[in-house]
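Methods — Computational structure assignment.
A single polypeptide chain was analysed. Its primary sequence is given first, followed by the predicted tertiary structure written as structure tokens.
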Amino acid sequence: MNFDYTEEQTALQDTLRRFFARDYGFEHRRAMSRSADGFDRAAWATFAEFGILALPFPEGFGGLDGSAVDSMLVMEMLGRGLALEPYLPTVVLCGGLIRDAGSAAQKEALLPAIAGGELMLAFAHNEAGGRYALNHVATKATPAGNGWKLDGIKAVVLAAPSAGKFIVSAREGLGLSLFLVDAKAPGLSLRSYPTQDGARAADIRLSGVEIGAEALIGPAGGTLPLIERAVDYANAALCAEAVGIMAALNEVTLEYLKTRKQFGTPIGKFQALQHRMADMVIATEQARSMATLAAVRADSPDSAERSRCIAAAKAYVLQSARLVGQQAVQLHGGMGVTDELNVGHYFKRLTMIGLTFGDVDYHLGRFSDSLLAA
């Protein structure tokens, strides 16, 4: 298998690297995290110009027909840049659901708007007490006229405060359905808050929210496999983001070891610290291999193979991320957890990745269950 990027992928990677180095420095990121939006809308517009918002969508709907490997490349760069913009909720999750399950009218209306940076979406699926079980949905969809009425509460909806529309999961009879709901729909309310990594989320209450028949995404009562596929795709993207963060932590930690002196000598000359730095680099490269596996398998039509490989990759990447993050903080000493240094912010983002769509124990369990089923 050829693991080299194409010329186009390498060019995109270089473009994003230059953007984050020139226009998205750490101090700018800190300022944006404290703003009303919690991210930089100008950066979002730039992402649209770069084409990364259109990357995974079909050409017929304003997209670039990109693969999961293309998305992996973008997510790795977003991780290195510690980007706050809602790329995962809008493009990877909601955009992926509309691409895979939306009607022709929904694709025509939504995908070009996402690609152009005009529309942000959020996936309102998680509920209190559900942990990571994707079938744990108590929100109800009740037939009403020519459409439905939604009632329920969604928890920790990532990027909800900036979303113009939500994709909401609800139980209809014995199965799950997905619905497109406007953020300003009567009966919908948000309780917004910052997350540990400086981003934004919200709990959403739906009280008799009425929607029309055109709001249904995919088959009524049969969307659990679509949700599972979208979350697998998101986990593959999170693996790539974590690898980008680990690579960035290695770079800043190595530079610190070269410049920080103790007893008149750079601490990087101490053999014990060299060994720890070597462990960090090895863990990152091994995680990169697993993230690549996840990206390659994310587009697989075999759902069992896809889930098994991505579960294994997420568990391994999270273990590596914990090692690299903790070592980076420890090697920087007390300043490694201060708000003024990017190391602590990288570590917080790795922690959030570890809590998004399944932690190590959850994915090890998924992997074990898949082996027993096979």
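Note: The first helix runs from residue 7 to 23.
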